[in-house]
Amino acid sequence: MFGSNLAPNLGEVVAMILFGIGFANLLLQKNLVKKIIGLNIMDTAVYLFLAIKGYIEGRAAPIVTDGVQEVEAYINPIPSGLVLTGIVVSVSVTALMLSLTVRLYKRYHTLDLDEISSRLKKEGM
Amino acid sequence: MAFVQNVPFFSIMLSMFSGIVSSVLSEKAAKRLNTAVILVIGAASAWLLVWLMRAGGSYTFMMGHFPAPWGNEIRAGALEAGMALFFCIIMLLSMWGGRKKLFDEVEVTKHNIYYILTDLLLSSLLALVYTNDLFTAYVFVEINTIAACGLIMIRQNGRTIEAAVRYMIMSLLGSGLLLMGICMLYDLTGHLLMSNIKERVAAIMAAGTYQVPLMITIGLVTVGLAIKSALFPFHAWLPDAYGYSTVSSAAMLSSLVSKGYIFLLIKIFYRVVGFDIICASKIPNVLFLFGLCGMIFGSISAIWEKDIRRMIAFSSVAQIGYIYMGFGLGTTEGMVASIFHILAHAATKSLLFISAIGLTDVSAGSRKFLALTGSAYRNKVAGVGFSVGAFSMVGIPLFSGFVSKLLFAEAAVLHPTHKMMPTLIVLAVSTILNAIYFLKTVVRIYVPEKQEVEMEKGYFRVTAGQQRLYTVTIILFILINLVLGMMSEPILDIIQTGLDCFA
User: Rounded to an integer, what distance in angstroms lies between the CA atom of residue B205 and that of residue B202?
Assistant: First the structure.
């Protein structure tokens, strides 16, 4: 039946919708800060997707407690590791984008990328 | 294990640590360290290449003593070593050719940062070339993007910052898609190492389940890397980024950064998905179509352009189109032609950027087409360099561009499908369009300018003796072009050997 896969995969669906929202914002917004917010939504959607994929119902975070060492007791740790790496990457990229935005704002006193472009064309350099 | 097998690991680490060390060095020391590191890595890669060609095959290098499905791996074959060597040569020459301009355009206090960024760029390129792990590849793709963004905006003016922002936005869209693709691929296969994924993908294809998600995944990865390497509809950031950054940056961006992504895509095609599966899917058709469009529209935009740097940048769009068209043919011959074109374009485009800067400098810094009249007489070395680059891009025999065009045509004819006629027609049209704007420029720079006009506008002459490093760079670039153009057999042999051990 159509949609019968929806309920078990709700998290993935949400992740994909968020990814789309973030992607569209990064691509289509004129305001630079909104673009950066879009970038963060997009990246976060990927982490949500990874976290859901690594999660196994009824198991604990992969930190050994009470001497339990069976694999069956814990969730898959690799996606969590990937999420951590991804967060580091996205933080540095966001910082770079924000610093560029500050530079542009100081020079042109606007956050609208299209307006900056048209002003640059008028300057004719 | 032979000692030479450590070369990939050491070259990545050496360039990365030299970047870190450069941050506390003086400008001069950082410059020397940068040159030394590129030379050492180039020599080591050449050694590795010779060793691999003798020993044959390829090998994987285990990182941190964790065996295959768990640990991280580096893999080297003839193609990887060759690419590393080539990237080092082009990077060294680009740095030399733009050194004088760097002093004019960038504050001396920032030179340190420039060398740090170059070292990081080199290390990320080497990692993209050598890595056997998809997530490592993603991380280094991002490092590459950040380094490239820094290279664009190191020259501070409104244009470059705007170009850097546009570049970052497009790149981040691309890397978002790439990351999503890699995560979904991990979800489907349960592995991150390329060889493990390939086994699982083959099993998925044999079982006939999850075909649609697999295709979507491959599509996401391909589109992500295509956006990052400026395939035709995604090239809007390119002319500004290449046109206004300092010349070494422009040369490295066009010839190295985008090529790094393309090389990663080739690796994914061969080592992650398997070339047969790619060819059986519809993905090559899409790449083929966009490649053809890029070849035509890039050249048309270049014809309209009045600014020489932006013209060369638009020509890059057309050349990236050639490379993707080769992918789109979906045959090994097409792939070989594309890889050769990566080399030919990298060698030629950096030569063009660097000689163009010589021409504009003697024309009172004006990049307008009319101001360049007679500039080849004012700076003879740059004039010769630009002519060689232009002839190569147009595809005149003796130069590298001719060989790649020949290879593309052969690849199209050898496997006559419905793609043969479009390829040949578009190749011919694109060659004519290339000839229009490049030969027009060559004629323009060799038309003598009246002496009164030269005096009035403040044009001056430079001789080869006044710009020794620049002259040496241009001569070396011309030599590389001639080697690629006249001795293509051994290079094609390396490419073929490398591709064979990819599979």
Answer: 5
